[in-house]
Amino acid sequence: MSSLSLLSYDEWTYKLDQGYVMASAAEVHGLIAGLLSAGVDPEPQQLMPVLHDFLNDGQALPVDVKQHVVSLIENSAKQLAQNDFSFSMLLPSDDDSLPERLDAMVEWTQAFLVGFAVQQTDLSLVSDDVREALDQLTEVTRIDIHTTDDGSSEENEEAYYLVLEHIRIMVLACYTEVGQKFGVKPVSNKTLH
User: Fold this and answer.
1) Which end of the chain offers a freer environment for a tag, N or C, measured as fewer CB atoms within 10 Å?
2) What are φ and ψ of residue 122, in 5° steps?
3) DSSP characters for 74-111?
4) Is 69:36 a contact under the CB 8 Å cutoff?
5) Do residues 30 and 108 lie in contact, with contact meaning Cβ atoms separated by under 8 Å?
6) Which of 93, 64, 80 is nearest to 183 (CA)?
7) What pTM does this model have?
8) Residue (of 54, 43, 87) closest to 183 by Cα position
């Protein structure tokens, strides 16, 4: 995989650590997805100032990290726009422990909600369905990853994947209704002769 955007979660973690960026890979991707889903143009010049503020205390990202973030923005925008449920979240692999994956899932969801709220400050402008999706995503952020569950590890894994799929559907609903509606550029009415 030569594309910069296709780094694994562990590779992203390494890049962010090397660049002294205090955010996790899940937070980086969640914030980007939230901004795009709220209608922010996927142009890096539009997104970088917000990413700097929220991910790096207002400081510019190191050049190497910035290149990967730009590629992640482009890849995320393409996946969201495809409307074929190909959108995937940047999270730890299935080989990582369930608590680690749950923690990253919660971080991703929190960052998504922050990114969405940066652009869409008036939720009266969005449909009841989008408000419901945002409420459900907020519920995900309240998952206590340290609670011991009586369920089997198989049941816990299944529940994790069900929640992940639910998050994806809620994100796509937000993007489809809000991101595309508010992010659409007006079409030029000039005719070519």
Assistant:
1) C
2) -115, 100
3) HHHHHHHHH-SS--------TTS-HHHHHHHHHHHHHH
4) no
5) yes
6) 80
7) 0.86
8) 43
Euclidean distance between CA atoms 140 and 111, whole angstroms: 12
SS3 183: helix
Residue 56 confidence class, pLDDT cut points 50, 70, 90: confident
Rounded (5°) CA angle 28-106-138: 105
DSSP 8-state code for residue 8: -
Rg (C-alpha) for the chain, rounded Å, is 17
Neighbours of 157 (CB within 10 A): 14
| CA separation, residue 100 to residues 27, 60, 111, 117, 192 (Å) | 14, 28, 17, 26, 56
Mean per-residue pLDDT for 78-83?
A: 87
Structure tokens at 70: 């730009």
Tokens of 158: 């299944």
| C-alpha 114 chain-centroid distance | 10
